[in-house]
Amino acid sequence: MAKLFRIKRWLVRVLVAVLLPVLSLADDCGREFRGKCSCGYQMYNYQTQYVVNCTDTGFRDTLVLEHLPAQTEVLIFNGNLVDELPWNVFGALNDLANLTIVDMSNNHIREIRGKSYHHVPNVRRLILNHNNLSISRYDDEEFNHHHPRVFSNFVNLQELHLTNAFADNTSAELSADLHDIFVNSNLTKLVKLHLEQNEISQFNDKRVFCDLPALLDLHLGDNLLTELNFNLSCMPRLRFLDLERNRFEAVRPRDLALLEAVQVQPGRTTPLTVDFTYNPFVCDCGLFPLYEWLARTNVTVRNRDGLVCLRNRQAREPIRSLGMGKCRKLRTGSPADDGGHTTTTLVFVLICLSCVLVALVAGLLYVSKDRLKTLLTPVVDSVSKKVHYTTIKDEDAPEQYV
Prior knowledge:
Helix content: 25-40%
Order of helices and strands: HEEEEEEEEHEEEHEHEEEHHH
Number of strands: 15
Radius of gyration: 35 Å
Strand content: 5-15%
Strand order of the largest sheet: 1-2-3-5-7-8-9-10-11-12-13
Oligomer: single chain
Structural class: alpha/beta
């Protein structure tokens, strides 16, 4: 029966492909769309699908989406001016069992309510790139934009695209807000997460991705990261970590150990791939851990031989071809050279500290000179009088006692 169903489905798609030029002419979506959108079968993702395309139509609300044709498989709703997604964007009664892809990029969306998406059980890919989402309870003094169950109806979601999706003034607690959403939305089938271009400098919540057990690909490119300060061990299936175009000047040994730990997890069948391309690495000994790790690791490093560092912030040099002999000596410790160097450094530091101490004492005395003069004058006068009386006594004494 299943085989017969697949054959019928294949025949339908072949028939649609043959009739596609004719079907594409009948693109009237209905009077509710006011002739601004196109509806019909077309090639999308290398296959024939029923696509509703409302790009750059100037819509200022989502009311038209309540009238999507039941056969819709792909919705493209881009380039409009929709500040907020209300409850039941696709209508309370609409049955969209065939809908698998929703692209709502570049709509200036600021807020998505917890019940905005309804009747989306089979959506596999949700794209919300280039919006102004506010998901924090702290971004606005009057309104709470944090809706933890915003993706809770996407029970079969596999790809979530949030490139440049958040407002520029996003709270530093972005990771905690995201984690809260991931926990409450139950995205257990999500395999791809895109968070590029969101000005992320760190993840305050170290377990931000730990409730995405099926995650394979994590895209964090074009952000402001300088280290891996989030938990990787809780993602046992992770196969690709995108870190290109961030702010890494070096990679800490601790972070390299995290990558190694993911690679050697028990039962792992696919190698971990990481991408450090186009980071501003600095050609000094701080880069030695990465240089050494690249030569021995089993982690797949994309563009390994093409990674470069900056010398004097200008000249680019391939990391793999750097001469790191001096850095290796400093790291391992050479008795002949390093010991003498350490002693000289300690002596120099002690001299500098002594000079600083003398300067501080001198400065303190100078600043407090008037107060010290007031305190010491009576003492000096008293001592002077005692010396004077002693001198007089010695001068008047009889000769026999001298």
